[in-house]
Amino acid sequence: MKRRMLALVFLLALSLVATNVYAADGFYVQNGRLYDANGNEFVMRGINHAHAWWKGNEDVAIPAIAATGANTVRVALGDGETWGYDDISTVSHIIDLCEQNNLIAVLDVHDTTGLDSSSSLTNAVDYWISMKDVLIGKEDTVIINIANEWYGTWNGSSWAAGYKQEIPRLRAAGLNHTLMVDAAGWGQYPQSIHDYGTEVFNADPQRNTMFSIHMYEYAGGTAQQVKDNIDGVINQGLALSIGEFGIRHTDGDVDEATIMSYSEQKGVGYIGWSWYGNGDNWIYLDIVTDWSGSSYTEWGNVLINGSNGIRETSAIASVFDASNGDSGDGSGTWTNVVAQAEDGYLSGVGNSTSRSGYNGSGYVTGFDNTNDYVQVTINVESAGNYNLKIRYASPYSDKYNYVIVNGQNLGEKFFAQNSNFVDLDLGNVYLNAGQNTIKVQSSWGWIDIDQFVISN
């Protein structure tokens, strides 16, 4: 009888770790896995964007990150303690950008990096609560990474105590998102999760918390380290993502190949650090050579194009509408992909319904300044040449305007005068497997854009 009772107690304890007890309208964790709002498992394949110290580049960087095929972008924000304060309108704009580009947004407060003070963690939680007006309702597209690399000391018990105190405050404020918690020791002490992760998980009234390891030289220097550190988390029924990693780091090499391959084998997410802007001392961590991603670095080619890389393993979250990028109906028969201009990202332009004959809910107008643009994101299953048509009107006269595909400017294209919406057939364009961005940018301007159509 005593053995039977002990067995029942053990099974009950295990169920508290493995099962999400909150029926979320967004992401949720269950049995050590992350699921989206449609109940489909979601495995992050993403890229970090260091917005906290490179503010103002998000309009270029985030669409370019999406063009790699990534399904996630982790965006570093500032709560004002260390880095400049990102206000609520900035956070709202970043979320909108991510949604428009079919990217799940993992948002983190970066001011806490390496700090042990409980006040720093409290400040981060206060920041999230202050942002709740733009976060609530985004549970299906936003994951809150509470505090980047909080608790720099390699001390799991103090790390756990801080999070056990602060996570209930987020829930009490009405933030029902999946929460992500970085390991102690600047994210590189996975033993903190191995020893205390279950306690932190159970401190969440909604059991909707996942964990993150930052795998550089101390947590990801060898293949055995990588495997042991991942297994020590997921074997407890806890959900995990590798929130940062690179090709090497300050004090040694990183086994990025094993991080990527073992993550793929175990269904663990990964997010490479970082898109651009690491400076001369850490330039080897830049994934691309400029904010627009015009070319990849050594690290970028490994992360994006390598075996088990983003292009090979990324799947866009099912919460994004199929009309914004699904290349087929699952039957093997090609279906044209249509992206409505008004659903894209608009810069300097706006929506209108004044002109009749549009498709969707309207069209985009107001191309009256240099560099005004509309950009949409389209998904195709296979890389190759596809026919591109842009439905437009040019009521005043013939106009020339730029068409840009995946950051490559195809030059000025001729939009003949027509007061009605007509198709401009641009012939074949090369698209990558996964996400692609297509932009119309003002040169002469003074056109209206209705939709973009990709056909095989």
UniProtKB/TrEMBL annotation:
Residues 1-23 form the signal peptide. Keywords: Glycosidase, Hydrolase, Signal. The keyword Chloroplast does not apply. One of its GO terms (molecular function) is hydrolase activity, hydrolyzing O-glycosyl compounds. CDD domains: CBM35_mannanase-like. Gene3D superfamilies: Galactose-binding domain-like, Glycosidases. Transmembrane segments: none annotated. Residues 337-455 form the CBM6 domain. Belongs to the glycosyl hydrolase 5 (cellulase A) family. This is Mannan endo-1,4-beta-mannosidase.
